[in-house]
Design brief:
Helix content is about 20%, strand content about 35%. It has about 150 residues and is of the alpha+beta class.
């Protein structure tokens, strides 16, 4: 009888060990590593709303990034990858779209947000208070996709 119990326990453990992990066990950090090869993950947490997981990390070139993802049926999916960039490095097409806006400004902060769904890039531009610190939210957003730059209303 004891031998049967051992055989049963060993068989059950073998089945569990050899089974592929269920989607519910997919870790968001693993998805982040696949989305941004070479990233060193610094942290990860649910956002304030509890509906999105944010992984922060550093790329080999030193850039800090944030990878935002959502979970559906136990599977994590990347929504966007964000990083701060200098205004001078933003494509001329985007800079021209901003210059055409009434009361345009030179932003003091720019977040480049690559959208996973279609590969478009949204530039979030922040204007400064009188003391040079950025306002709380983006003051202007421009979407760059397939060679076109459009201001997002």
């Amino acid at each position: 009888m004891i031998r049967f119990q051992y055989v049963f326990i060993i068989s059950a453990l073998t089945i569990v060990a050899c089974s592929p992990p269920s989607p519910e066990t997919t870790q968001p950090e693993a998805v982040a590593l696949a989305a941004a090869p070479g990233v060193t993950i610094v942290g990860g947490e649910l956002n304030a709303g509890g509906d999105q997981y944010e992984v922060t990390g550093t790329l080999p070139n030193g850039d800090e990034i944030e990878i935002d993802m959502v979970q559906s049926n136990g599977v994590w999916t990347v929504v966007e990858i964000q990083r701060d960039v200098e205004w001078s490095t933003v494509p001329q097409l985007v800079q021209a779209a901003v210059a055409a806006v009434p009361d345009s400004f030179d932003p003091v902060r720019v977040i480049e947000s690559t959208q996973a769904v279609d590969g478009s890039i949204v530039y979030e531009l922040f204007e400064a208070f009188g003391d040079g610190t950025p306002y709380g939210g983006p003051d202007l957003e421009v979407r760059l996709h397939e060679g076109n730059a459009e201001v997002i209303p």
